[in-house]
Design goal:
The structure holds 2 protein chains of 2 kinds.
Chain A (H helix, E strand, L loop, with lengths): L2 H19 L3 H21 L3 H40 L1
Chain B lengths: L5 H6 L8 H6 L18 H39 L13 H14 L4 H9 L1 H24 L10 H6 L2 H23 L8 H19 L2 H6 L2 H28 L19 H25 L3
Helix pairs in contact in B: 4-5, 5-6, 6-11, 6-12, 8-9, 9-12, 11-12
The chains are: A mainly alpha, B mainly alpha.
Amino acid sequence: MDYFELLLLGLLVVCGISTCLTRNLLASLIIFMAYSTIMSVLWALLKAPDLAVTEAAVGAGISSILLFITLKKLRDIRRKANDEKDRLS
Amino acid sequence: MKKTGFLERFRAWDEDRFDLTERTTGDLNRPMRPAPTDRTVSDEPVQRLAAGEMRAFSRIYPILAAILGVVLIAFLLMTVYDLPPFGAANVPADNEVPARYVRDGMAETGAVNVVAGVILDYRAFDTLGESHVLYTALTAVLILLLSLRDAEPEPDPEDVLMRRDGILTTTAALLVPIIVLFGIYVLLNGHLGPGGGFSGGAIIGAGLILYAIAFGFTRLERMLNLKSFRIICLVALCFYSVSKCYSFFCGANGLHTIFSPGTPGRILSAGLILPLNIAVGVVVACTMYGLYSIFQRGRI
């Protein structure tokens, strides 16, 4: 196997584990995006270019954007709850 | 503020770093109150009980997760060990069916890209069913998300416009035309090279999302609102179903169809594959943008 593929596979494992173990949710999402990007390069190396294009657009692009928006919404909800608590106290 | 709960500590990572949103969207006239330093007496036992449960749970959880992960990895590694090597000649899947796809696929479907020929011609019945499953799932998601619209009024999209900065708008103005053009290229060349309806539609959708992030929804809304979203999805899916039903009927009964494979390699060839790719791509692009819009502001 090529050394480049071995490097990519090792990075894939590192990204997968650190996505789970990162406490910071924003950093976890960014590592997840890196995981998708590495996966798309691997698809291209496995001679599946259409899968590579789809993985780059959907995995690294759109699903990450939806997760980022979810994170922002969670922060808004928490801020609203904090405001309520401030007003009540 | 005192953080007690496990989840609260876990989620408290960005409280201090991101008070930019607080500054721009928060109510400026709100009187600043000191944060409560102590809890009321009544919910103290509940808090302590919840914290204790959470601590016990967080002690057992990593051990269980590790055992489950090791078992799962062992099963997967056993399966991978039994697989034939990558690219081997005598695998069970390599029988007369792929041989025929590779040998006669271009002459029979007119598609240079054999994958597109298999997906949208030989196995078009499966793809038709899959697209309807996807559309049903999307409809369920839209019903769930759009029913929450009235419950919580969303902030005006104009404040997104006010917060935009120069780097983002300049980059988006340079990149969005290229991204959308590349998406259209992938979409239209699905029968000639790698790509096709889903990939092209996803790329176009990503370009639209980037435009919406940079310049706000107001300009996109003239072209893409809930009404046009419904019309586009309905027309594309009806076209898909009707044309494939016609194709199945003619193919099953050995009749002559008006769709011919044409000359392989030309852009206007491969019969139904190009129009079906366009239909799928338009639906996927609208769906990606629509999901982003619903997530971001609660409506399309």
